[in-house]
Design goal:
The chain is built from 13 helices and two strands; from the N terminus they run H-H-H-H-H-H-E-H-H-H-E-H-H-H-H. It has 309 residues and is mostly helical. Helix 4 runs parallel beside helix 10 and helix 4 runs antiparallel to helix 11. The two termini are 42 Å apart.
Length: 309
C-alpha cells in the first residue's frame, strides 16, 4: 500500500486563528446583556419610575419639576460623568488609543502593527463621525429621526410665555414652524427648540459600546505582543518601557470600566428599548467590520490587521 499522503497546508483563505488574548465574538454578548439588565431595572424597580415628559401638554409642568429634582443622580443629563466623559468620549477614546500605540513593545513588525492599528482607529472614528456628527449633511442618527417623523418644535415653556396679543401669538406660531427646518439635534437645541416626535437612536449606546469594545480589543492585543516577546526570548522590559505599558493598561481599564458603567446608566434612564437596540446594532456592525471580518478575509486582514498578531 502506498504511504498516506501528508496533510496539505492550510489555505491562506482560511479563517485566521485569533491570538490567545483575542476575545471571541461571543464576548460581545456582554453589551446586549447590559442593555437588557438596565432596561429591566428601569421597568421593574420602583426607584426608576418617573413621569413621561411628552405624554400630554398638561403634564409638562409636572415633568419639568421631575427633571429639576431627578430620581437618581445618573438620570440627570448634566451629571459630571455625562458632561465630562460621555459627551467628549471620543477625546478620551483617542487619548487612550494613542497611549496604547506608544506602549507597543519593540519588535521587527512594530511599525506595521502600529500602522494597522491607526487604520482601525480611522475606521472606528469614521463610523462614529458618520453616525453621530455628519453624513454628507445631517448625521445618520439625525436623518433617521427626521425620516421617522421627528422635527424641531418650539419649547412649550416658551409658548406659555406668549402674551394674549395676537401679533405676538402669530409670531410665535410662525417661529414654531421655523423650528421644523432644523435637521440636527444640535441645531435644534441651539435654537431653543425641542427635538421630538421621531425614533431617536441612542448615540450614547452606539458610542459607549464602540469605545469599550475597541479599547478592550486593542489592550488585549498589546498584552499579547508583550507576552509573545517574552516567549521568543526577548528581554523582559524594565524601567520606562514596562512602566509605560502598565500605566497605559490601567488608564485604558478605567476608560473601559467607566464606559461600561455609563452604558448601564443609559440603559436604565434614557431611550426606549428599540432606540437602545438600534444604537447597539450600529456599533456591532462597525465592530464586526473592524475586528471580526479580518479573521475571515485575508485581503482585509492585510489592511487592518488583528490586535496581538
Amino acid at each position: 500500500m502506498p504511504p498516506p499522503s501528508p496533510p496539505s497546508p492550510p489555505s491562506s483563505s482560511t479563517t485566521q486563528p485569533p491570538s490567545r488574548f483575542s476575545p471571541p465574538p461571543i464576548a460581545l454578548l456582554i453589551y446586549p446583556a447590559t442593555l437588557l439588565l438596565g432596561s429591566l431595572f428601569s421597568v421593574l424597580s420602583p426607584t426608576a419610575q418617573q413621569p413621561s415628559s411628552d405624554s400630554t401638554e398638561a403634564s409638562a409642568s409636572a415633568s419639568t419639576s421631575a427633571e429639576t429634582i431627578p430620581i437618581n443622580y445618573f438620570a440627570r443629563k448634566d451629571n459630571i460623568f455625562n458632561t465630562y466623559f460621555v459627551k467628549i468620549g471620543w477625546v478620551w477614546f483617542t487619548l487612550a488609543f494613542a497611549a496604547l500605540l506608544a506602549a507597543y513593545p519593540p519588535s521587527p513588525v512594530r511599525g506595521k502593527r502600529q500602522l494597522q492599528a491607526v487604520a482601525r482607529w480611522i475606521l472606528a472614528t469614521t463610523a462614529w463621525y458618520f453616525t453621530t456628527q455628519w453624513f454628507f449633511g445631517p448625521a445618520i442618527i439625525d436623518r433617521s429621526f427626521v425620516v421617522t417623523g421627528g422635527k424641531c418644535e418650539a419649547a412649550l415653556a416658551e409658548l406659555g410665555q406668549v402674551q394674549e396679543d395676537k401679533g405676538a401669538l402669530s409670531g410665535a406660531v410662525a417661529g414654531k414652524e421655523e423650528f421644523s427646518v432644523y435637521l440636527t439635534a444640535a441645531a435644534c437645541k441651539a435654537a431653543g427648540g425641542a427635538w421630538r416626535g421621531g425614533h431617536d437612536v441612542s448615540g450614547h449606546v452606539f458610542m459607549l459600546v464602540l469605545v469599550t469594545a475597541v479599547l478592550g480589543a486593542e489592550a488585549l492585543g498589546v498584552m499579547a505582543q508583550a507576552q509573545d516577546g517574552k516567549g521568543e526570548g526577548e528581554k523582559v522590559e524594565e524601567g520606562s518601557g514596562g512602566d509605560l505599558r502598565t500605566w497605559t493598561l490601567r488608564f485604558v481599564s478605567v476608560i473601559v470600566g467607566l464606559g461600561w458603567w455609563m452604558l448601564l446608566m443609559t440603559a436604565i434612564w434614557f431611550h426606549t428599548w428599540l432606540e437602545k437596540a438600534n444604537g447597539l446594532l450600529i456599533s456591532l456592525t462597525a465592530i464586526y467590520t473592524i475586528y471580526i471580518l479580518p479573521r475571515r478575509v485575508p485581503a482585509w486582514r492585510d489592511v487592518v490587521g488583528i490586535p496581538g498578531l
